[in-house]
Amino acid sequence: MSILNRHFLLMLCLSAMGFLSAPSFAGADIQPLNSKDKQWINAQKSVINGLSKQHLGKTLNGARSHDLPLLQALLDKKVVTKKQPKQLKAMGVMLGEIYAKEMGMDWVAYKDAKGRSLAMRWMDSSKLIFPVTKLSRMAQAGMKVDVSKVCNNDIKSLYVIIKETN
User: Fold this and answer.
1) Cβ atoms of residues 130 and 141 within 8 Å
2) pTM above threshold 0.85
3) What is the CA radius of gyration of the chain?
4) 71, HSE (Cβ side, Cα atoms, 13 Å)
5) CA proximity to 154, closest of 118, 109, 88, 105
6) Which tens digits make up the pLDDT trace of 77-112?
7) Which long-range contacts (CB under 8 A, 24 or more apart) does 119-123 make?
8) Residue 139 CA to its chain's centroid (Å)
9) Contact 27, 19 (CB under 8 A)
10) Neighbours of 102 (CB within 10 A)
11) Which residues on neighbouring strands pair with residue 148, listed in sequence order?
12) Which of 2, 35, 122, 123 is deepest in the core (most CB within 10 A)?
C-alpha cells in the first residue's frame, strides 16, 4: 500500500473516531475556552463524580487506571444508558480529563460552519480529539461501549498521528 493510501486510510479512520488534523481545519477556528465553557466542564465532572460516588462509592480522579473501570461500571450497571446523552457527554468530559492528565492535552473550543464544539488539543498543535460526544454517539448508534478500549485506542491513535507528522 502506498504512503498516500496509508495516509488517506489513517485520516479516514481518525476522523471517524473523532480526531481531526490540519487539513480538516479549512474555515475552522480554534479558541481558548471561555469562562462558560470552563463552568460547563466542571459541572459535567461533578455530575459523573456524583453518580460514581452514589452508585459505586468512589470518585473519579483523572487517572486512566482508576477512572476507566468506574466509567465502565456506570454503563454496565445501567446507571448511565444510551437514553441519557447528557450523562454520556459528561463521561466524555472525563475521557478528556484523562487525555489532559496522560497526554498533556488541553481543552479548546473548535468552531466551524457546523457549529462550536469542545475538543482536546495536543501541545498547541492542530491535533484534536472530540471526546465529549464520542461515547454518546457510540451508545446511540447501538454499539456496546467499552470505555477502556475507546480511551486506549484514542491514545494509541494520537501517538500514530504524532509519529507520522514528526
Assistant:
1) no
2) no
3) 16
4) 31
5) 105
6) 999 999 999 999 999 999 999 999 988 899 999 999
7) 119/20, 119/30, 120/96, 121/30, 122/158, 122/162
8) 14
9) no
10) 13
11) none
12) 122
Q: What whole-number distance in Å separates Cα of residue 60 and Cα of residue 49?
A: 6
What residues in the chain have per-residue pLDDT under 50?
Answer: 1-17, 21-23
Q: Please, what's the b/e burial string for 35-52 (b: 16 or more CB within 10 A of its CB; e: otherwise)?
A: eebeebbeebbebbbebb
What gap in Å lies between CA 116 and CA 134, rounded to an integer?
Answer: 15
Written in H, E and C, the secondary structure of the chain is: CCHHHHHHHHHHHHHHCCEECHHHHCCCEEECCCHHHHHHHHHHHHHHHHHHHHHHCCCCCCCHHHHHHHHHHHHHCCCCCCCCHHHHHHHHHHHHHHHHHHHCEEEEEEEECCEEEEEEEECCCCCEECHHHHHHHHHHCCCCCCHHHHHHHHHHHHHHHHHHHC
Bridge partners of residue 110, in order along the sequence: 30, 117
